[in-house]
Amino acid sequence: MIWAVVPAAGRGARFGGELPKQYLDVGGRPLIAYTLDALLSHPSVHGVMVVIAENDRFWRGMDAVAGKPVLTCSGGAERADSVLAGLNALPDDVRADEFVLVHDAARPNLAHADLDRLLDLGCGDPVGAILAAPVRDTLKRAGDDGGIDRTEPRERLWRAYTPQLFRRMQLSRALAAAQAAGVAITDESMAMERQGLRPLLVEGREDNFKITTPADLARFEFVLSQRHR
Ligand code: C5P
């Protein structure tokens, strides 16, 4: 049985507006409710630690989803600080060498089939694994003037998604080491890679997208409208 840490302490500045994106209303529910449903409806997920901002005015309070515990703790300035706080706040009976999932609050369209594959392959890996998808567009390197300097090869380039699956203590140590070194970490895998470890890439569905722009939100609303037909 696996616990998930869900960082939800971002202020969503890139989305615009005051309401952080994880609390945007979608069909009468906050976006994060769909993310928690996706995780907790999976039989292997035992509980979730939601990391919210200090003085969060928007979290509606939730003790359980699908009869499973939903705990909360306070996050930090950067995403990595929030994840580290979440790992530290997990119940004591989550052992140091146990695998935990980390999943963005703003990634509501996680499919069970993806989680199945991540857990199957990741729990068999000495380090752990992440969901990801290959880069399909041609990549351009921009110059200062907005012109194209050159085309970058896209072979072997992947886009990192969440969930990401690592052992509780190993991930805590890797995040703390990055924090101490003042290195900005954009996902958990990056912290592990800095330790010389090589997490496994597990190809996931392209529709496990992160809500970042209004267009992403419209896409998720469309996905939901198709789900209930
Ligand atoms: O900003 P970005 O889209 O990378 O955020 C990814 C996830 O990390 C979001 O769910 C956001 O709420 C969370 N986050 C956090 N603490 C921060 C910044 C972001 O928990 N300080």
UniProtKB/TrEMBL annotation:
A family per Pfam: IspD
| Catalyses which reaction(s) | 2-C-methyl-D-erythritol 4-phosphate + CTP + H(+) = 4-CDP-2-C-methyl-D-erythritol + diphosphate
> What are the protein's UniProt keywords?
Isoprene biosynthesis, Nucleotidyltransferase, Transferase
Role noted for this protein: Catalyzes the formation of 4-diphosphocytidyl-2-C-methyl-D-erythritol from CTP and 2-C-methyl-D-erythritol 4-phosphate (MEP).
Point out the annotated site residues (description: Transition state stabilizer): 14, 21
Question: Which residues make up the annotated site Positions MEP for the nucleophilic attack?
Answer: 154, 210
Q: Return the protein name.
A: 2-C-methyl-D-erythritol 4-phosphate cytidylyltransferase
Which pathway features in its UniProt record? Isoprenoid biosynthesis; isopentenyl diphosphate biosynthesis via DXP pathway; isopentenyl diphosphate from 1-deoxy-D-xylulose 5-phosphate: step 2/6
Q: Name one GO molecular function term.
A: nucleotidyltransferase activity
What Enzyme Commission number(s) apply to this enzyme?
2.7.7.60
The text of the family note is: Belongs to the IspD/TarI cytidylyltransferase family. IspD subfamily.
Enzyme class, broadest EC rank: transferase
Q: Which HAMAP family match?
A: IspD
Q: Which SUPFAM superfamilies match?
A: Nucleotide-diphospho-sugar transferases
